[in-house]
Design brief:
The chain is of the alpha/beta class and 229 residues long. It folds into 2 domains: 1-37, no CATH class; 39-226, Rossmann fold (3-Layer(aba) Sandwich). It is 37% helix and 16% strand. A 5-stranded parallel sheet has the order 1-7-6-2-3, sandwiched between helices. The chain has a two-stranded antiparallel ribbon with strand order 4-5. α9 (202-211) links the parallel β6 and β7.
Length: 229
């Protein structure tokens, strides 16, 4: 079996999506080195971590966390670029599945009922073919053994890219572009709202404040990476 694996690898090499090195037979998506060396935040264990505090006074979030620190030119940026623009949905699912095991060890996330990804506008999703945050959400839901809801929270307007906007412009760009529909099943539930990268948090803030229109709802947040430290 090992010889067959090595032979196939000559023609269809499996590479680490973070560093581009060849994966060993037992490795998946990330090599062992990257799996343990990428800059984890461990914010899921901290009550007043920087991501959570970034939402103070903006949205009544119960807790917030991110798996990795994000820096331009880093392996984390390369990993997310592969997920977001190169069609590598398996990255999102794998990271979600892995991070879900961490969240189960945190008192802040043990009672989460359902995972909801930040939605893309339908036109943008058709063009890209998928929603990278949804891939991450599906992995989290699989690991935590709860459902993933991709229907209730919707994006009604195709907003402009957030990449080069200021904090205020980001908030202004997304403040009225989300809606909720057929939300009765979410009443009195603890929602895990997820995105790929948290920068200013404007998108999460807009989504959360729309979801808070649902009676009795509690919202926590998780992302693959964040820029805050």
């Amino acid at each position: 079996m090992s010889l067959l694996y090595d032979f196939i690898g000559l023609f269809f090499p499996r590479i680490c999506y973070s560093c581009n090195n060849t994966l060993l037979q037992h490795e998946e998506v990330l090599c062992t080195f990257c799996l343990y060396q990428l800059p984890k935040t461990n914010f899921h264990l901290e009550e007043e971590n920087p991501v959570f505090k970034s939402f103070w006074g903006r949205a009544n979030i119960s807790h917030a966390t991110a798996l990795y620190y994000f820096q331009k030119g880093s392996k984390v940026q390369h990993l997310i670029h592969q997920l977001k623009y190169k069609g590598k949905q398996e990255i999102g699912f794998y990271l979600g599945k892995t991070y879900g095991q961490d969240l189960l060890q945190s008192d802040f996330y043990k009672d989460v009922d359902i995972v909801i990804p930040v939605p893309l506008h339908p036109r943008k999703k058709r063009k890209r073919g998928y929603n990278q945050s949804e891939s991450f959400a599906m992995g989290l839901a699989s690991s935590i053994k709860i459902s993933c809801d991709t229907k209730t929270l919707v994006r009604t307007t195709a907003s402009q890219t957030q990449t080069k906007k200021s904090r205020f412009k980001r908030w202004e760009n997304v403040k009225e572009i989300f809606a909720v529909k057929n939300y009765q099943h979410l009443q009195d539930k603890h929602i895990l709202l997820v995105d790929d990268v948290i920068t200013t948090g404007a998108t999460i803030e807009a989504c959360a404040n729309k979801l808070f229109e649902i009676p009795g709802i509690k919202i926590s947040v998780a992302a693959i990476a964040c820029t805050v430290k």
